[in-house]
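ok new one. same drill as before - structure tokens go in, u give me an amino acid for every spot. 212 of them this time. try not to just spam alanines like last time pls lmao
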């Protein structure tokens, strides 16, 4: 990560924490009052090969001891009603502002992955993770909805794992490498802006005015 990108991340994270800290306290209070502990979901992800960190989100699912792997339709029953709202608005990801301040992730980059995939595809991730993982990224914009549709048809953990490894991951890695080769501050700002529009309008397609 360049010093300029790191400075941008820290400055924007501190700026956002001022208004969003009240919202985060409210969400934490609601989760604690109506769903109990834990308030946060903490998962080990990889910042770089051999460099794990603990990614923080608001908990959106019922706890299960043997939970593993990516989320497919087989886990939908565990997502709470409040969790659906947090995921749809991406409020569940606000605690990642603290991950940004710690230097674990950036605002824009490849989505943080688990160590299993880094170990399984060392050459690909050795290159992709030269970019700091991000809260959002080019692959998130381009492929997230398609990935959700693929995994949403998977009825078991095994089926989800096969679909993710064979159909989703290769495409996401290719897009992450495209981002890495073309990364600029202007591109990062565009990705952040497009992410905000998707959250607000629930639609990845650019809005056009109808003819009069």
């Amino acid at each position: 990560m360049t010093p300029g990108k790191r400075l941008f991340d820290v400055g924007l994270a501190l700026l956002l924490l001022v208004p969003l800290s009240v919202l985060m306290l409210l969400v934490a209070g609601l989760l604690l009052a109506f769903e109990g502990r834990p308030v946060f979901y903490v998962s080990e992800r990889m910042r770089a090969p051999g460099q794990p960190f603990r990614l923080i989100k608001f908990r959106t699912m019922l706890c299960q001891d043997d939970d593993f792997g990516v989320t497919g339709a087989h886990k939908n029953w565990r997502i709470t009603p409040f969790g659906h709202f947090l995921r749809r608005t991406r409020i569940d990801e606000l605690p990642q502002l603290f991950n940004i301040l710690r230097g674990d992730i950036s605002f824009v980059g490849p989505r943080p992955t688990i160590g299993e995939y880094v170990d399984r595809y060392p050459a690909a991730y050795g290159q992709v993770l030269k970019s700091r993982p991000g809260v959002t990224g080019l692959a998130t914009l381009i492929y997230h909805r398609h990935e959700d549709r693929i995994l949403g048809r998977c009825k078991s953990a095994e089926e989800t794992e096969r679909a993710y490894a064979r159909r989703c991951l290769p495409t996401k890695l290719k897009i992450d490498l495209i981002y890495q080769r073309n990364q600029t501050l202007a591109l990062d700002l565009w990705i952040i802006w497009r992410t905000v529009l998707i959250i607000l309008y629930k639609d990845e397609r650019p809005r056009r005015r109808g003819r009069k």
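The first strand starts at residue 40 and ends at 48. and btw Residues 206-212 have pLDDT under 50 and may be disordered.
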